[in-house]
Amino acid sequence: MTSRPYLAVIHYDGGQFVGWQRQATGRTVQAEVEAVLARLTGRRTTATGAGRTDSGVHALGQGVGFSVAAKWTADTESLRRALNALLPRDIWVERVDPMRPGFHARNSAMARRYRYVIGTDDGGRSPFRRPYEWALCRPLDLGVLAAAATTLVGEHEFRGLAAAGAATPHYRCRVALAEWAPRADGAGVMFTIEADRFLHRMVRFLVGAMVEVALGRRPLSDLSRLLAATDNQAASPPAPPQGLYLVAVRYPPDLYAEA
Question: Which of the residues are catalytic?
């Protein structure tokens, strides 16, 4: 039976996963999705994620690519419902789109957007909030955070603000958006960043450094120094994973097939 590529946009609570990518031990989002695809298709089906989120990191818009029978093209809503009926409760498929040949969930992505959530009030320690934000529970100067974020926009080497030992051909990333804003509930702040690519733990290192600046523990000028660094030895500790969300992945419009 003829198969074609599809893109599923999925949400997941990363708290009970050791990350997106399938591993020898531990529960992963990729393994859960592939197990469901195998049940639906009767064969092993690979699911490719647009971003390899770490243990504890959440997603509100992870792009997942896979190939299944072309019969689903005319009824992708049925495919979405079938996936959701079999997936565990901490994974949910928002939509499914048929894609054109050559589509690849990771390699075809033009940009990815992440959000990092910080709780600055004492309520951040609540068991209903703590798993989904950094419970910093102390005020942050939003003006200083905003000034720090402006230094990130543009193309930079992020070797000094990413995990060491990453298997990558280069460390250059082009940041199109980096901004801090107050949370709508008034309980803290949020950082949003969009770039053509991200390095391992890059967003968490960036947030960790900017928070240190906002707390007066290091000068604002340190960010420029870190962007020029050849290693991450001078970096601040990365922010904890539970505050990080992959919120969107953008693809070229011409890769979406007409249903």
Answer: 54
